[in-house]
Amino acid sequence: MCSKSNNSCPANRKKNSEGLKNCGRDYVESYNNLPQESKDRMNWAKGLTKETSPSIARASKKLKGRPGVSRPHTQETKDHLSNARTEWLKDPLNRKNLGRQKRSWMELTFENYLNENKILGWDSEVHFWNDEMGKNYFPDFIFEDKKLIIELDGTQHRKTVDLDKIRDEWFLTKGYKVVRITIEEFKRRYFSGKGFLDLLGH
Prior knowledge:
Largest sheet: 4 strands, mixed
Number of helices: 8
Order of helices and strands: HHHHHHEEEEEHEH
Number of strands: 6
Helix content: 40-55%
């Protein structure tokens, strides 16, 4: 017996290919041997839709599936999914799978600053879903009570100015104020001792 996998062994590939062909022939032969009454029932069932069958129409209304398949998610369901995804992303292993495992120096420094100054009521990378554009958003830091979002823009954001603007405008429609801090301003504020309290309303 060949020890190679099915995909790498030519003999196995040929055997599987023959098996598929035989499977198709077996199905055709089985269908041909059916009584005409059974064939008619099968062909009739293929034409059933919720427009032509009341029972299927009733069942389709009860089905819960993806948006666009049966009926869209309610806002309550969307919020539940968003919260679950936020919690899921707090696991470093899950973040790694999405390529978001490494937090920047700015993010870690800003978090330490908040803790050192005993600033409460904030969270990081909370999940938002933009339904219109089909986008996931993860603000760097969010202060829910103040409806304030702090975005720490590294050098990569110089290439995404237009996308960042669209994102900020979307958050504005949700009642959030977005404050973006470039890496140059971040260093100036941090190393000069000015800090960020004024941006946080303190």
